[in-house]
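Notes on consecutive records. When two proteins share a document, each keeps its own sequence and its own token line. Never mix them. Below: protein one.
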Amino acid sequence: MVQPLGAPASGQKRTFDKRWVAILVSGCLLVGLIGFLVGVNRSSVTIRSCKAYAAPTQATATCDDGWAYAIPVANVKWRDAIGVWHEGGRPDCLPLGPQEVNALTFATVDVRVEGVGWRPVVWVSC
């Protein structure tokens, strides 16, 4: 028997529907995976440049955002004036003080645990 043009043979419609469902499910899984990877690899590092006060055992930077940041003076990664990275030691731009430092550039990360948040300093740039 000859089928009219445009009319699917029996079983053809069901195969077509299954293909579209498979394509939609695959697309949703792909979008979900991409969203997960973007969220996992997102950095919360913020570079700041603020006035600081250096003393022999500590340094504190006060920024326009209202936060005061404790700058580690002995155990922080830092970059010197010519761009060389150091794994620790006192950054060259933090004098033994007590002394004010006009503009100290440093990076913080946002941390939140059980509703408590803080912003530790992770590196200093001189």
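Protein two starts on the next line and is unrelated to protein one.
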Amino acid sequence: MPLLSPETTGYLVVGLLLVWLALGAHIGVALGLAGFLGIYLSVGPDAAFAQIAAIPFGTTNSFALAVIPLFILMGSFATVSGITTELFRMAYVWLGALRGGLAMATVMSSAAFGAASGSTIVNAAVSPKWPCPRWPDLAMTCGSTRDASPLQALWPP
């Protein structure tokens, strides 16, 4: 089979990607098929099948993915020991009387725990439990904790 030019391959692959997405295919599946098809049509079948073997190993053979369970374990230890609840209670005592104090306490406790743990993943896994018993609006709880969790990346551990 003759190889296609990069421009033709690009138009074909993007068009098929949009069709697959419009038909309701999962984004990851559609992107994976589009990438495989693009390599297959522009470089050749040997390169495409080599990528199928190499990409999963290269993605999972990562130090960052290996330590995620340990960070989650650290967050569980912090939750069981009561550190996270005390952080939230401290922030709520300081800020709870202000208008929007519950949201500010959530953000402050999330930032403090994130700075101590050094992991956005742990912060996102642990922090949604803090304001739930006090918060009257579930959507506000989810929004506040969702927005506060990535703040950890601003401070070094």
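For the record: The first helix runs from residue 6 to 22.
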